[in-house]
Give the backbone structure.
Amino acid sequence: MRATAVRRTALAAAVASLTLLATACSGSDSGAKGDGGASGGKDAASSKPATVKALTSAELEKVSLEQGDVVGHKISKTGPEDIAQPEDVTVDKKECEPIGFAFYGVKRGTPVGNAGRKVVQEPKKDESADPEDALAGLLDVTSSLVTLASYEGDGAAKSLAELRESAAKCATGGFTLTMKGSKQKVTKVTEEKATGGEEALAWRVQMGEGDAAAPFKLVSLRQGGTVATFFSFNLGKTGADSDFAQPAAVIDAQVKKLG
């Protein structure tokens, strides 16, 4: 294997270890869909329901993704080690706290119920490929932490509005996240198109710079009083110019279950 490939592999593994998805190390689906704007779906103001029923954690479990819901993916419930607590994560800029918290599934506001899943794409195997290409194929998978939070009244709409404002303020200049003592510099937040639910937001989040940079994807959408958030990374993509697609199949499957 060439030295470049070794460095890329090591960088990817190092970045993954800084996230709560490191235990999932296999990936979710890629291939973005939709031509909607960053606030995809209906306009937030016009679509916000007058009253919504918040779902309990037990009810959210029933509408969360399960094994078999997304072809070619492994789906499992999150455990205590996968979802960070507010005291686990600190952000050096207060205005960047909402988006920083969203990466790790930290509760925001006062949700009535919560649920979480790890969604891991099964790598494609090509026995005819040479060893280096075969390794690249095994790494070129996307892992997603999917969290659901349900709110009373307009809590879900407010949650997305807060996230949108935080991302806008933190798009340039960067900020530093500290997760249980491990620091990671967010250097760029770039808005992307997203669709799904009644309102959807998406960003490409870059951590690190140059060859040490790695892209992440953050998608958050609202269906009624429930906010679904998808934080994804691809082990095979490192470097400031690297990118990968949003986990469209995973998002579509979750939106369908939220109905």
Notes: Helices lie at 3-17, 44-47, 57-62, 97-103, 131-139, 155-169, 248-258.
